[in-house]
Every structure is written in structure tokens, then in C-alpha cells.
Amino acid sequence: MADRRRHLNALPDLIVRFRETLISFPRIKKSVPQFADNDFAGYRTKRKGVDVVYVRRDWLERFCGPLTKRLLDQLVAEQVIQPGEGARSGKQVRVLVGGNLQKPRFLMLDEEKLLG
In whole angstroms, what is the distance from residue 6 CA to residue 49 CA? Predict the structure, then answer.
């Protein structure tokens, strides 16, 4: 429990580090790259006018620990992440990193596409 609290308390720092990391991600327009290279953590693209970053699950877990259902529920309750399709099962997680309600910017994790 203390570990989960520490993870939640560290979330502002996590988001700052995510934002800094976003700058280094390559922008890709159409094709989805293969995630065979362990150094390749993610990529940026636009989806329906919203900036999206797809991120490897193992890379994300380095920052916030295991993505358990309970942790995801807590993050959703704190409005740190925006649940996507399958988010409760840990297959997809969108982490808000800025923007506004009309055009939010978020990190999206899609385990099936990126790690499959």
C-alpha cells in the first residue's frame, strides 16, 4: 500500500519526465514501427487532431511500477490517466500530459499493438 501511495505521490514528477521524453520520440505519420529495439520506447503521431504518444508497457512500468487493475483505477480516479478501450485490463492506458479538454495530449499504451 505504501508503494502505491509513493507511486501516486510521484505522479507529477512522472508527468514532467514523460513530457521531457516526448520531445525525443520520433513523429510517425502512417506506418506503425516494430518495437523490436529495446531502446525504442515510443513514437508520436496525431489521431483525430490529438497528439498521441504510443509507449511500450515495460518502459512505462519503469516509471510507475506494475500496471495493476487497482493502480489503474486509482489513477483514473485521480484523473491522471484517461481510460481507453481495454484500459482496465492494462492493455491500453492514456496518461494525460497537458493540453485542454477540447484537445488533450496524452500518452497511450496499447499492449497488443506495441508488444504483441
Answer: 34
Residue-wise pLDDT tens digits, 41-65: 566 666 666 566 666 666 667 666 6
| Confidence (pTM) | 0.41
Using DSSP's 3-state secondary structure scheme, residue 104 falls into strand
Q: What is the pLDDT of residues 26-36, one digit of tens each?
A: 565 555 544 44
The C-alpha atoms of residue 58 and residue 66 are separated, in whole angstroms, by: 9
87 vs 28: CA distance, rounded Å: 23
Q: Residue length, the chain? A: 116
Answer whether 65's CB lies under 8 Å from 45's CB: no
Amino acid present at 63: F
Kindly state the helix (H) or strand (E) to which residue 46 belongs, with its residue range: strand 42-47
| DSSP state at residue 44 | E
Other C-beta atoms within 10 Å of 48: how many?
A: 6
